Amino acid sequence: MKVKCKANASLALIKYWGKKDVFLNIPATSSLAVSVDKFYSISELELSDRDEIILNSKPVILQNREKVFFDYARKILSEPNVRFKIKSENNFPTAAGLASSSSGFASIAACILKYFDKYSFNSASNLARVGSASAARAIYGGFTILKEGSKESFQLRDESYFNDLRIIFAIIDSSEKELSSRAAMNICKHHGFYYDAWIASSKKIFKDALYFFLKKDFVHFGATIVKSYQNMFALMFASSIFYFKNSTIDLIKYAAYLRNKGILVFETMDAGPQVKFLCLEKNLNTILKGLKQNFTDIEFIVSKVGCDLEWI
């Protein structure tokens, strides 16, 4: 017997950065995210005599992260002797700051629980979180929240809520980043003054963002999105962590230039050099045309808001 499903990547608009519990991936800040329909992972599960993951047709050397995830799965299933064979494929660059771990672990967690007839949104979100906190959100489509200190995410609104929202991904460097998000978070936590300031500011930004999101106030919601990633990177800079490339800075400047011209576009970033732009469909062609004209060596991919995970 095999189980197979597809999960879309989860892009945090209001950022999660930092862990209350490193072992179980309990987030230190609340995040609000959007599902991305262009980027997804497809995973297939069958039982085996040992745990193994084949990612993008290559065997993965299991690290502590994967071992803890599988052990947690066995614990919640009450199946101490079961072993899992996972085949997973990402249709976008892995470990490059594009949230591949979110869709990857979400699809794997869903398959494990479905195989044993114990699948639910909550149970899948709980298990996925142990692999990647962002994966807790990727179980759902639309817009999701994973609160500070929580084990499960929940869907705030489905994909129809902001159905004219578009996300433009600027792929600057698709290679695997040298410093993982987990390692970077751990470094940041040791810079107490700046880390504490990040945690404190995140609470207000999240509260403001939620208010503007529910009012469908794109202007002020977009401003909180920008503030969230900028504060996160300020903490990284203070911790001597640098993911930016030259093109990263130029793209950020270009987004600010467009806003000064009255064109509503708001950028965000994750741990990596890629820049993501959020806009409404009515402005998409104007923004995309300018990006392609000014940044001819960068690949741009446009996404809509994604849906819940799908069984295949």
From TrEMBL:
Any GO molecular function: diphosphomevalonate decarboxylase activity
Protein name: diphosphomevalonate decarboxylase
Organism expressing this protein natively: Borreliella afzelii (Borrelia afzelii)
Occurrences of domain Diphosphomevalonate decarboxylase-like N-terminal (ranges): 7-152
Chain ranges passing through the membrane: none
Family statement drawn from the similarity comment of this UniProt entry: Belongs to the diphosphomevalonate decarboxylase family.
UniProt-listed Pfam families: MVD-like_N
GO cellular component, one term: cytosol
Keyword match DNA-binding: no
InterPro entries: GHMP_kinase_C_sf, Mev_decarb, Mev_diP_decarb, MVD-like_N, Ribosomal_Su5_D2-typ_SF, Ribsml_uS5_D2-typ_fold_subgr
Keyword S-adenosyl-L-methionine: no
PANTHER family to which the protein is assigned, alphabetical: DIPHOSPHOMEVALONATE DECARBOXYLASE
SUPFAM superfamilies (alphabetical): GHMP Kinase, C-terminal domain (SSF55060), Ribosomal protein S5 domain 2-like (SSF54211)
Organism classification: Bacteria, Pseudomonadati, Spirochaetota, Spirochaetia, Spirochaetales
The EC number(s) this enzyme carries: 4.1.1.33
Biological process terms in GO annotation: isopentenyl diphosphate biosynthetic process, mevalonate pathway
Gene3D superfamilies given in the database record: 3.30.230.10, GHMP kinase, C-terminal domain (3.30.70.890)
Entry keyword set: Lipid biosynthesis, Lipid metabolism, Lyase
